[in-house]
Amino acid sequence: MSEIAVVAISIAKPGDEEKLREAVEGIVEPTRKERGALQYDLHRDVKEPRRFVFFERWESEEALAAHAKSAHIAAYKQASADWIEHAEIRVLTKIK
Fold first, then answer.
1. Where does the record place a coiled coil (predicted)?
2. Who's near 63: CB < 8 A, 6+ residues apart?
3. CA 71 to CA 85: how far, in whole Å?
């Protein structure tokens, strides 16, 4: 089992920043309670407030896969689909 990191970025459509903020804030606590979640921190870009960034650490790729299939993530994706202009997820391994 190898720890992995994730950087997940979501950019709200103009005018939908606060809707997206509420949605991303709503998934923080349930995710932190998931098995295998080591870190799940939400940030908002200071210079570009439409950009929300998660820094995540997971025990394994399996834990991340289970997270992706969780009910609260499915509900988040459905609710926020119309508010997101761009989303990007990068899965990383630490090399040093």
1. none
2. 34, 35, 36, 37
3. 23
What is the phi/psi pair of residue 91, to 5°? Answer: -100, 130
- Residue 55 lies in domain: 4-92
**pLDDT tens digit string along 21-61?**
999 999 999 999 999 999 999 999 999 999 999 999 999 99
Please state, in angstroms and rounded to a whole number, the distance separating the CA atoms of residues 95 and 43. 24
Q: Which of 21, 85, 89 is nearest to 55 (CA)?
A: 89
Q: Which residues pair with 41 in a beta bridge?
A: 55
Indicate the residue type of 40. Answer: Y
Q: Which residue type occupies 8?
A: A
Q: Kindly report the CATH number assigned to the domain that includes residue 60.
A: 3.30.70.100
The model's pLDDT over 55-94, given as tens digits with 9 standing for 90+, comes to 999 999 999 999 999 999 999 999 999 999 999 999 999 8
